[in-house]
């Protein structure tokens, strides 16, 4: 049961232990070109859609135990159900339902993870709650560096998304799959991604618009390998993208993008290797991570960005 309370214009959500708000905010600051939220003075501001109503929320730390969530611009919902939906969205986004203590117990015995856990203690896998956004972000990031991926994302969002204006700033809503499903690759030609990636994104949007692909259906798949197979059937989704989505959206703790360049580079960096580790070496290093591969990967990524 998620614990929360309400006072005046704020909702207060009980944070689990262990959790460090600043460590998680620092993750959000990894690229200045992020367009889905604003970070100022340790406060996160973004739009979320609750039961078809768009709500501009501002999240800050309220002591060490709570997150304070304020609804801005007159977008505060009135019903208990809508307020609870906001709470559920934020808890999913911050992965509050995962007990990190077993991961830390395992990681402190692991020579590779031990210094990483000490540095980022309280970090959680910050999610992508929306399946379409997660799949698009995975496709956009294929075979390019992170900085350019953020540039493409901003171009895509600002071209096809909508926004709320508040205090002279635009707060963006990720493009809806219903809208993207009606486009052609030529409609997206001024976004500097390959034609194939444009086709992949439109193809995913069409599957979702037709009801052939949904987060709800994927969440009913209990087995990681089966869920991976379901995603890989989609044109443009390979093993890396599937595992990324399984980590960030569907919350499989054992999802493992073992071929990820960032993971490879992070292991090389942490171990001080003069060459990149081989896949066999990564398998050996990760043998003890069973059921925690996603968190191990996420923490190692933070050593680079």
List strands and helices in order, with pairings.
Elements: E1 4-7, E2 10-14, H1 21-28, E3 38-40, E4 43-50, E5 53-62, E6 66-72, H2 80-93, H3 101-107, H4 114-119, H5 131-140, H6 146-160, E7 162-166, E8 169-173, H7 177-180, H8 195-209, H9 215-219, H10 224-232, H11 239-248, H12 261-271, H13 279-285, H14 293-301
Antiparallel strand pairs: 1-2, 2-6, 3-4, 4-5, 5-6, 7-8
Helix pairs in contact: 5-8, 5-11, 10-11, 12-14
**Spatial strand sequence of the major β-sheet:** 1-2-6-5-4-3
The fraction of residues in strands falls at 15-25%
The tally of helices reads: 14
What's the number of extended β-strand segments? 8
Mean pLDDT: 95
Secondary-structure-derived class: alpha+beta
Protein name: DNA-3-methyladenine glycosylase II
Organism: Oceanobacillus aidingensis
Keywords: DNA damage, DNA repair, Hydrolase
Catalytic activity: Hydrolysis of alkylated DNA, releasing 3-methyladenine, 3-methylguanine, 7-methylguanine and 7-methyladenine
């Amino acid at each position: 049961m998620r614990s929360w309370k309400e006072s005046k214009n704020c909702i207060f959500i009980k944070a689990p232990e262990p959790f460090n708000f600043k460590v998680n905010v620092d993750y959000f600051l990894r690229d200045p070109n992020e367009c889905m939220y604003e970070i100022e003075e340790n406060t996160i501001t973004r739009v979320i859609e609750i039961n078809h109503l768009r709500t501009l929320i501002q999240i800050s730390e309220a002591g060490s135990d709570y997150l304070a969530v304020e609804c801005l611009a007159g977008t505060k919902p009135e019903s208990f159900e809508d307020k609870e939906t906001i709470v559920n969205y934020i808890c999913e986004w911050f992965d509050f339902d995962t007990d990190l203590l077993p991961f830390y117990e395992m990681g402190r015995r692991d020579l590779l993870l031990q210094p990483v856990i000490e540095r980022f203690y309280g970090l959680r896998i910050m999610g992508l709650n929306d399946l379409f956004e997660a799949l698009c972000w995975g496709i956009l990031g294929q075979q390019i560096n992170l900085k350019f991926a953020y540039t493409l994302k901003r171009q895509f969002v600002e071209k096809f998304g909508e926004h709320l204006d508040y205090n002279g700033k635009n707060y963006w809503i990720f493009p809806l799959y219903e809208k993207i499903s009606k486009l052609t690759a030529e409609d997206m030609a001024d976004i500097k991604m390959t034609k194939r990636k444009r086709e992949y994104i439109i193809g995913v949007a069409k599957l979702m618009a037709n009801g052939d692909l949904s987060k709800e259906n994927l969440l009913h798949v209990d087995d990681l390998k089966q869920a991976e197979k379901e995603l890989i059937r989609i044109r443009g989704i390979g093993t890396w993208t599937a595992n990324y989505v399984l980590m960030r959206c569907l919350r499989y703790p054992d999802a493992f993008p073992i071929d990820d360049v960032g993971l490879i580079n992070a292991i090389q960096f942490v171990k001080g290797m003069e060459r990149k580790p081989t896949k066999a070496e990564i398998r050996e290093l990760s043998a003890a991570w069973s059921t925690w591969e996603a968190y191990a990967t996420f923490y190692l990524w933070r050593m680079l960005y």
